[in-house]
Design goal:
The chain is mostly helical. Helices cover 70% and strands 0% of the residues. The chain has 6 helices and no strands.
Length: 112
């Protein structure tokens, strides 16, 4: 896969407008496996966060990516468990600033 298909470039820069494309490329079976179980979802995020940190992304960049992913999920996926339902409800009622803080908290949660 060429670099233009990735969210993170070789130089470590994050291309936020490619997040939706990257999420759309996840196979439906893999998406179901990730989203059906909240522990699986956290594990998937944890692995991606660890990789992003290894290439030099900081906490703010991770939170921005988490924000973009949360927006995508809120628009395109139905919650599959009570944890996802709660996150969706918090996302929908939150202001832009509150959503950004929630994204920071989600990154921390996935790092545990």
């Amino acid at each position: 896969m060429s670099e233009h298909n990735h969210v993170v470039s070789k130089d470590g820069s994050l291309t936020m407008n490619r997040v939706d494309e990257a999420l759309d490329r996840i196979e439906p079976e893999q998406r179901e496996m990730i989203l059906n179980n909240f522990a699986e979802f956290k594990g998937y995020l944890s692995k991606r966060i660890h990789l992003a940190q290894k290439i030099g992304l900081g906490e703010e960049q991770l939170a921005l990516a988490a924000e973009k992913i949360a927006d995508y999920l809120a628009k395109h996926e139905e919650p599959r468990n009570s944890e996802e339902k709660l996150l969706l409800e918090l996302w929908r009622v939150g202001t832009k600033e509150e959503r950004h803080r929630l994204a920071h908290m989600l990154v921390k949660l996935a790092q545990q």
